[in-house]
Amino acid sequence: MNSSTKYQGVFPAFYACYDERGEISPERAARLAEHLIAKGVQGLYVGGSSGECIYQGVEERKETLRAVVEAVAGRAVVIAHVAANSTRDSALLAAHAQSLGVDAIAAIPPIYFKLPEYAIADYWNAISAAAPETDFFIYNIPQLAGVTLTPRLLEKMLENPRVKGVKNSSMATLDIQTFKMIGGDDFYVFNGPDEQFLAGRLMGACGGIGGTYAAMPELFLRMDALIRAGRAQEAAPIQMDVNRIISALCACHGNMYAVIKELLRRRGVEVGSVRSPLSPLEKQDMAQVDLCEEMIEKAVALHTAQAL
């Protein structure tokens, strides 16, 4: 793949795939990967928030990534999120990801303890050093990690030549432009919040990595195509419908990912439920899931009926 286009487009954040006992299912992970590639996505982001990484052990995360890489077989870009609570576990995951031949690794900052920026940089650089031949992306998600990627910290990290970009999940689209200005023309910033895919792209994001993409890949791919064609204004109604759908996905007792996994099951892609402490679906949720399914089907039919 051309290096100038490698990190562009629609990258669904891959979901944790479990069997009926709640154990990691490589077979279901492979099936989900096949499903998303068939939809036409440009890449997969494996082992992040949507992958329930903080509720899984190192070996479970390795098992999932191995299944995805084998299923993808070079047909799409794979970015592996490898951050864990300890630097040691993160380095093990990074080395394993490189051994599988992923395109890049990514990591959130250390969570729980409030660390100085030099300690955060040391953590990220130690992870990168464990995969010295693999591109590295910083994952900026301050609302959950409790740490904000500052311009000063990014400048420090750019001393590491493997740092190629940022997955930016802050809600301020200005951050995308700020990071691009610091990183330069060859620096990649992915938009994180699905609700602002269009805005993030217009502010300079190379593409998007998002937790709801796999529920409605057609809509994000359509927005991406319109933006590339210079017809961004036509993507605005799609973004509005996407945001309405996201609100509906979050309206159940069960966690949003449990809702999406049920929607996938109805499409023939069984990936199990979610892992505690995330809440599974309850019987009372099914009417809302029906509504979500109907909203997605209507939006896809409306916005993808005509060729570009």
How does this structure look, described?
The chain has 308 residues and is an alpha/beta fold. The protein has helices at residues 26-39, 58-72, 87-100, 117-129, 142-145, 151-157, 174-183, 197-202, 217-228, 236-249, 256-266, 286-303, and strands at residues 9-12, 43-46, 77-81, 104-107, 135-140, 163-168, 188-191, 207-210. An 8-stranded parallel beta sheet has the order 1-8-7-6-5-4-3-2. Strand 3, helix 3 and strand 4 (104-107) form a beta-alpha-beta unit. Helix 1 packs across helix 2 (58-72), helix 3 (87-100) runs parallel beside helix 4 (117-129) and helix 10 (236-249) packs antiparallel against helix 12 (286-303). The longest helix is centred in the C-terminal third of the chain and has 18 residues, at 286-303. It is globular, with a radius of gyration of 18 Å. The chain starts with 8 loop residues before the first strand and ends in a 5-residue tail after the last helix. The mean pLDDT is 96.
The H-and-E topology, N to C, reads as EHEHEHEHEHHEHEHEHHHH
Could you tell me the strand content as a percent range? 5-15%
Query: How many helix segments?
Result: 12
Radius of gyration: 18 Å
Structure classification: alpha/beta
* Residue share in helix: 40-55%
Morphology call: globular
Q: What are the segments in which pLDDT stays under 50 over at least 5 consecutive residues?
A: none
Query: How many E strands?
Result: 8
Distance between the termini: 24 Å
Largest sheet: 8 strands, parallel
What is the mean predicted local confidence, pLDDT? 96
